[in-house]
Specification:
Helices cover 66% and strands 1% of the residues. By secondary structure, the protein is mostly helical. It has a two-stranded antiparallel ribbon with strand order 1-2. Helix 2 (38-58) packs across helix 5 (111-134) and helix 8 (213-228) runs parallel beside helix 10 (268-289). The radius of gyration is 22 Å and the shape is globular. The protein starts with a helix and ends in a 13-residue tail after the last helix.
Length: 353
């Protein structure tokens, strides 16, 4: 395999595997004993993450487009594919009772469930893995898949979605109504159209300087942890209060990130800090979430420890790679002996390649 192919294939493979590892195993939804099931999860999670990333990068777009496409992925997976948005007894859990208080007939599902689906898949299943893998790249905007690779991943994703959808319908003995499918399909199509409507021209740079990456990471950890801590709210409080708070916090986070990303000095280290803060949240959430999945304590703790340590190590390596890439870009080019002697140099005295 030639070097140029490796440069594209290895990050694509890394994202293909990392998306389900973060989205399912780090969260604790899947115990470490189910790690062979990664073969079945990767075409859906990893295929979706690759399609989101490659579609945005190939059309010259960036993170706003990827985020909106990630929301559409969330609705695709939990809507038409496994139908969790509508199944009141999904996975043997009493989802109907758990989300009954915020069910809206016009939507065909619960507002709170929509918030959960959009939050988990948009942030952790898609955006965090993409940001982590791109941190290792010198040019994160460069596409990884070739002309044959992108359609192949697309076909793999569709096949995995159809296979999972059929198996879920058979095992769960549940199929949503045509109205529910129509609402989800309309929302998904609208989100995809919005993703491509977002312009490619960068916004005007404001006068403010970007905050330090540590500040960005701490803010990401705090906001994402706050989302998961809503289960600790006192009983008797109306469920619509945290639902409303979710929209307020989301609007504030989007506005703040939009301003930060247009500030002077914003770069790869800040994007990695956002992803890293969210990744650290999933580590502590995994320890609390695994016990709800009916897994024995030793198995759950072992998986949490292994995947948590691996996540921290990956974050450290990504930070080192990002710092090295930034340093190499900012380092002034060396001048040749000829340029120092005043002959054969390009304008400005730079070395002629």
């Amino acid at each position: 395999m030639c070097r140029s192919v490796r440069r594209r294939f290895l990050p694509a493979l890394a994202l293909f595997l990392l998306a389900p590892l973060v989205g399912e195993f780090l969260l604790g939804n899947q115990p470490i004993t189910e790690l062979p099931g990664l073969v079945l999860l990767a075409p859906l999670y990893g295929g979706g993450a690759l399609l989101v990333r490659e579609t945005a990068r190939r059309t010259g777009r960036g993170w706003p487009t990827m985020i909106v496409l990630a929301v559409s992925y969330a609705l695709i997976e939990e809507g038409p594919v496994d139908q969790m948005l509508w199944n009141p007894h999904y996975g043997g859990f009493d989802m109907g009772s758990a989300y009954a208080s915020t069910h809206v007939p016009l939507l065909g599902t619960s507002v709170e469930m929509l918030q959960d689906v959009v939050s988990m898949h948009t942030i952790w299943s898609i955006c965090v893995p993409i940001a982590l893998v791109e941190a290792f790249m010198r040019d994160p905007r460069r596409p990884w898949l070739g002309r044959a690779g992108l359609p192949a991943v697309g076909l793999l994703f569709v096949a995995a979605a159809v296979l999972l959808g059929v198996s879920q319908a058979q095992s769960e003995h549940f199929v949503a109504s045509p109205y529910q499918f129509a609402v989800a399909g309309t929302a998904i199509a609208g989100l995809i159209a919005l993703a491509f409507a977002l312009g490619r021209r960068p916004a005007r740079m404001p006068d403010a300087d970007a905050p330090r990456p540590w500040t960005v990471g701490a803010a990401a950890f705090a906001v994402t942890s706050l989302y998961w801590l809503r289960d600790q709210l006192p009983e008797g409080l109306s469920v619509w209060w945290p639902v409303a708070a979710w929209f307020v916090v989301l609007a504030g986070a989007v506005a703040l990130c939009a301003r930060w990303s247009r500030s002077r000095g914003w770069g790869a280290s800040h994007r990695l800090a956002l992803a890293g803060g969210a990744l650290l949240t999933y580590i502590w959430v995994g320890f609390t979430h695994a016990k709800e999945m009916g897994v024995s304590v030793p198995v759950a703790l072992t998986g949490n420890a292994v995947f948590g340590a691996a996540a921290v190590l990956l974050l450290v390596l990504a930070a080192a790679a990002s710092h090295a890439a930034t340093s190499s870009v900012n380092r002034p080019p060396r001048r040749s002996c000829r340029s120092r002697l005043g002959g054969g140099s390009a304008p400005g005295g730079l070395e002629v390649p």
